[in-house]
Design brief:
Elements lengths: L2 E9 L8 E9 L2 E6 L9 E4 L4 E4 L1 E6 L16 H17 L2 E6 L5 H8 L7 E3 L4 E3 L28 E3 L3 H13 L5 E4 L18 H13 L4 E7 H9 L4 E7 L2 H9 L3 E3 L3 H9 L7 H11 L2 H11 L2 E2 L15 H6 L5 H15 L17 E4 L9 H4 L4 E4 L2 E5 L3
Helix pairs in contact: 3-4, 5-6, 6-9, 7-8
Length: 410
């Protein structure tokens, strides 16, 4: 088995507020075998001297859409799926080059893209997939035009068939959940409030009845997984939490009472703030519909406040971006946006250790510890002193699953 020793590095991860200088890391195959403050002696190994540079775990984006290559989601269905896959491969390669060695796709990617990455056919982060999100009629996943009276026979939401499916009633949502799990979904996504990208549902909508949402959660739990819910308002978030949803996506309009509820239930909030700033700045020029631009204003101003509320309530906060189309290039700017409210350590923790917990990969991702997968990044400087280093960093070394993906060390 291949042995690699990374020596003379300064270790930074969410297990300590202080950097650990003069650290050596032994990688055996695709896992970290040893972390030591003493030189590691091992024959038949490849040794890389990091000369005091910072080494940290690979980043995790817990809310992205690798197949959404157009800002107007309705347009995606007009692109051949072969081209969609090729464009997704390009996006994923760029994500890896930004330091994201793992992502959780929040609807759209399927087991084929996941398998292609695992088999080395697509260069990019390993990916947890949600398949198609579940939406009620008229919900956030219903992209039909008002002139279209009925869903497609497959139950897809015409205009976004790659990302969502319509299901109404307890039996229908059970079947839809089972179908997504049968097709390889690692987690289920449900739309529980209105959204920005969807044309007709107000942000304040609460979507799915208690009975329907509990049925979705129950089916996911039977497969030993969970539900992630798109939800903006305190009312919608409370509804989702009380029905057993494990992660709340976006949550811009959360209040303190609801954040305490999330804390008490051990749930996670996954804000995605950069997408609103990027859409406000570029959406009109890139074809974002006027209705979405108007809805955007309802959630943009409350984004940073949601971080303050969750911090006060002690709620576990993950790291997501939710960028669409050409805005994917803004992925790392999420670090800068959050720095208005959170400390560097809190932001780093959210993008590594907390997101690993969300994926059910605690101890295997997001940390530099023995037994973890060897997803490692090397850069100049200390991100615990300046988190904006992660916004602009040109990684000198990217290791994913024990394989060197980029090496620019002198």
């Amino acid at each position: 088995m291949n042995l690699t020793i990374l020596e003379n590095c300064t270790l930074v991860d969410a297990n300590s507020h202080e950097p650990r200088p003069d650290t050596s890391i032994l990688i055996e195959g695709n896992r970290i075998k040893e972390v030591s403050d003493q030189p590691i002696q091992m024959g038949n190994s490849t040794r890389i001297d990091l000369k005091g540079k910072t080494l940290m775990p690979g980043l995790i984006d817990a809310h992205c859409h690798v197949i959404l290559s157009d800002l107007n989601i309705r347009n995606v269905d007009s692109i051949p799926q072969t081209l969609v896959t090729a464009m997704a491969g390009k996006l994923m390669g760029e994500m890896l080059d930004r330091g994201f060695t793992t992502v959780r796709d929040a609807a759209g990617a399927d087991w084929g893209i996941q398998a292609a990455q695992e088999q080395g056919l697509i260069r990019g982060p390993r990916i947890w997939i949600a398949g198609r999100a579940l939406s009620q009629t008229g919900g956030h996943g219903d992209f039909r035009r008002r002139t279209q009276a009925h869903p497609e026979p497959c139950g897809c939401s015409s205009g976004a068939a790659l990302t969502s499916r319509l299901a109404d009633g307890i039996s229908a949502v059970r079947q839809a959940t089972r179908e997504e799990l049968r097709q390889g979904a690692n987690q289920i996504k449900a739309m529980v409030s209105g959204g920005v990208a969807s044309p007709y549902d107000p942000i304040a909508n609460v979507q799915y009845s208690e009975e329907e949402l509990r049925a979705i959660v129950e089916e996911a739990e039977h497969w030993k997984t969970y539900v992630m819910a798109h939800a903006y308002t305190a009312e919608a978030i409370t509804h989702a939490l009380n029905c057993g949803v494990r992660t709340i996506e976006h949550a811009n309009l959360i209040d303190l009472k609801t954040a305490h509820l999330a804390t008490s239930k051990g749930a996670y909030i996954v804000p995605t703030l950069i997408t609103y700033f990027a859409m406000e700045e570029n959406g009109k020029d890139l074809g974002l519909p006027e209705v979405s631009i108007l809805k955007l204003q309802n959630v943009l101003e409350y984004g940073l406040r949601s971080l303050e509320v969750c911090k006060e309530a002690g709620t576990k906060v993950g790291f997501g971006t939710d960028l669409l189309g050409p805005l994917h290039s803004e992925q790392r700017r999420e670090f800068k946006v959050r720095s208005e409210v959170l400390s560097a350590f809190e932001i780093l923790e959210s993008a590594t250790k907390t997101n690993a917990d969300i994926l059910g990969m605690a101890g295997e991702l997001g940390e530099v510890i023995p037994g973890a997968l060897a997803d490692l990044l090397v850069l100049e400087g200390n991100p615990l002193e300046d988190i904006n280093l992660l916004t602009d960093a040109r990684w000198q070394l990217i290791i994913q699953d024990g394989h060197i993906q980029r090496n620019e060390l002198n």
